[in-house]
Amino acid sequence: MSRPIGPPPHRIPDPDSQSRDSAEELREALIDLDRARAHERQMRLQTEGLLEGLRVLTRAENTRQMFDELTTVLQRFVPFEAAFLMQADEGSDRFEVTQSTCREFEGGNWTAEDMLRRVATGKIVSAFDVTALPEWQAQPPSVRERVRSAIHVPLRTGTRCAVLVFTHSRAAFFDRHHVDMLERFAPLTTQAMASMEYRARLEAHATRIEYMANHDALTGLPNRTALADRVEVLAAHAHRAGELLVLLFLDLDRFKHVNDTFGHGVGDALLKVIAKRLREAVRESDTVARLGGDEFVILLTGITEVGAVNSMVAKILATIEQPVVVEDQTLFVSASIGAAICPADGEDVASLLKNADVAMYRAKEEGRNGVRFYAPEMSECARVQFELEGALRQALTLGEFELHYQPRIHLELRELVGMEALLRWRHPQRGLVMPCDFIAAAEENGLIVQIGEWVITRTCAQSRAWQDAGLPALPVAVNVSGRQMHKPQEFLDHVSATLARAGLPGTRLEIELTESVVMQYPAQMIDVLHRLRRMGVRIALDDFGTGHSSLSYLKRFPVDMLKIDGSFVRDLAIDGDDAAIARAIVSMGHALGLRVVAEGVEDEAQLDLLRQMGCDEAQGFLFSPPLPAHEMEACMRRSASRKAGTWPSISGAIPRST
């Protein structure tokens, strides 16, 4: 049977099938629409969150504020139960929890090795179950019990590494949306923390600069700048309260000797100890400042009467006097203090400092280790002192110094056996100035070292000139200041070079040192004196009996002679105590194998007693005053030609023969 020819028959659609297809398409479209709307809502919420978070990060002034406000914002998008921030400096072996919403996390043990792996990847890590992670297994039970899932957000901020951690007590709690949100926040948070770190460094730098501008680098005490500010404030307060403000200007005595002898390292260590002692010696309301070098200033507040200052100063001086041990060296120091009172002696820091400084120098002139209150007449003295110091420098430059020589006589042989070179200043207006009028100033400003070198040089040159003139080869003694011994090697080198330049043996030079100089650092002086002796130079202890020599040290000193101070010789014939002291010095000197020389012999009664005591030599106006070089030369010629057994006739004073 053949198939019919023509188009196929028309099929009638199934209404039910079409309805089902349309409904499915509509359902899928609605689902897609809901998803789009949900995604839009999520994006809108994330955008709003980012904007709010950005505002938080922008206005945050520190990490604490940033953490608190940022976690509040994030709580709406990442519903964590706890959050904390860990940070570590580069090179650190552990992370420290610096911020936390839960106290239990603050004591955790977060090692750098574990956390740095998080930071190194730069990716956020979501842990579905932290119990498998070694860094969480190392935490205390209080932490492990409340955390099953966590998100680690690494943050790298310049010199610091950080990890922001969000936790929940349910495992696998955090999903992809939470991670996406935190991924958006991470770079903003990193930038904000980097900015805060930079600002913190700038603020710390500024604080450091301000501190350095107002504090002494060595001791940490306020400096001159800070002192000026405090004087202004404290003076105004004292005026309102009807009180006095007292400024103490403190200068350590002979501090330069410490630096020269032991080095600046020891000197700096000593200054630190003194600074600490001064802070402890005063009240909290008082101020201790360092101006520089060995100069300190103390501001005493709340003073109602000047008498109250004396007890405070006594405590300060007693504190300073305590021995200081630095690098196995035991140092004994003292201080001179000048006091100025506000408002009587000045109302600003410049006036108070100037007047207290003047008073301090007066304290030094009067023996050191004490205090003097400023008085107006001191300013005139200070002006004169300043002019004197300037004239001294000019005198050395212009050659205004000269030496006079006082003969020394052997009492048994009645012979001229030596002389002492004594410094004089030929001032263009004042004439011949005695050492007592300028040596203290030279000692204070350090010029005595240059003057002392000139004395040794001139003495050796004059001795050589006399030798070349055929005169007897007599030793000449020179006085040496303690300041010259502060740098012993330089002193020894100068003596050696000067003798060599003059072509003289060391026996032609005698060095006179006072007891106080020798005993200040006896162990060091023993070495210096031995080295002088090896050059042939002879040593004399000058002004013996006025100092504080230790007999145990005296027998160890390579000394050739003791010189009895003129203060004991002056009243020798009328004061039994002076006679007893002189006799004891002669006996002790002879027992130690030393020659004994009496200074300041002025009359025959003194001479007779000294001869009876067995004193070896003497000098003084009875024989001759100090003479200029040309007169001393004439004296030496007369002495060389005198009749044996008679006293040398030197300047018209001829002791009677016995």
TrEMBL record:
Residues 11-22 have a biased composition (Basic and acidic residues). Residues 243-376 form the GGDEF domain. It catalyses: 3',3'-c-di-GMP + H2O = 5'-phosphoguanylyl(3'->5')guanosine + H(+). InterPro entries: Biofilm_reg_signaling (IPR052155), EAL_dom (IPR001633), EAL_sf (IPR035919), GAF (IPR003018), GAF-like_dom_sf (IPR029016), GGDEF_dom (IPR000160), Nucleotide_cyclase (IPR029787), Rev_trsase/Diguanyl_cyclase (IPR043128). Coiled coil: none annotated. It comes from the Bacteria. One of its GO terms (biological process) is cellular response to nitric oxide. Residues 385-640 form the EAL domain. Residues 1-10 have a biased composition (Pro residues). GO terms for molecular function: cyclic-guanylate-specific phosphodiesterase activity. Residues 1-22 are annotated as: Disordered. PANTHER family: BIOFILM ARCHITECTURE MAINTENANCE PROTEIN MBAA, DIGUANYLATE CYCLASE DGCP. NCBIfam families: GGDEF (TIGR00254). This is Response regulator receiver modulated diguanylate cyclase/phosphodiesterase.
